[in-house]
């Protein structure tokens, strides 16, 4: 990374006008091309040993998630235990990447996950709407970190972004990043509300310029969540951002990814778009609640030659 690059990127976030000029100067997304490429890569299939490797990698990339108003301490403890030992009958099955819960449930999950190597993520900043004063969002973040979260999933203010108030969004992400301390920050773009692929690209760059460690597609609380074309655009953004700045940022599609077949499509997309460096739980995650069970069933099929029934594994 050169001094010229650092200086340039510092300059583009110095004013609303400069930031707008930079974001609107990014290359436009070819909608037809992006959708066709994502569809083409989604037809790839992998077999036998490669499939077994992909399943285990996908398991290691899962942020096992429960974000319901009816969440109870018992449910969160059970989910956390499952994250550590997804298949109690098979100790060779890897643990997932993280458990993701509301801030109030962080202390409960922390009791189970402490010392296991499984990360503890918490949604914050008035999830899922993001419609709260900045002081509330920062307090939400600090409370989750203090309770034991080492990853924060924040939502951007889509109203501000769609109104063109880019500097406001940038400054908010920067403030939340500071409030995270040593915790990693995942910035949720809520791509289903951004309307265009060009907006997805702009929001991705905005989040990365503000210091986000990951960019994430969705809250899972709107009808349109993760899609292959949107994730393709975000993967292109992190690839190009690293080429420009030297800093690598992760990607997390979330919502609507339910089957092993879905997960494999995303892994192919990662490999073909951003490259092998992102085929790692440190740089790519699946936000999911039901995906893990299908991965476990497919894993058992490869190991034993027979499918386990859907009720063999605990429901999340």
UniProtKB/TrEMBL annotation:
Leader sequence residues: none
Please give the start and end residues of each transmembrane region.
none
Q: What is its EC number?
A: 4.1.2.4
The entry's keywords = Lyase, Schiff base
Asked if the record carries the keyword Transmembrane, the reply is: no
* Catalysis performed (reactions): 2-deoxy-D-ribose 5-phosphate = D-glyceraldehyde 3-phosphate + acetaldehyde
Is Iron-sulfur among this UniProt entry's keywords? no
The family classification in the record reads:
Belongs to the DeoC/FbaB aldolase family. DeoC type 2 subfamily.
What name has this protein been given in UniProt? Deoxyribose-phosphate aldolase
Origin organism is: Polymorphospora lycopeni
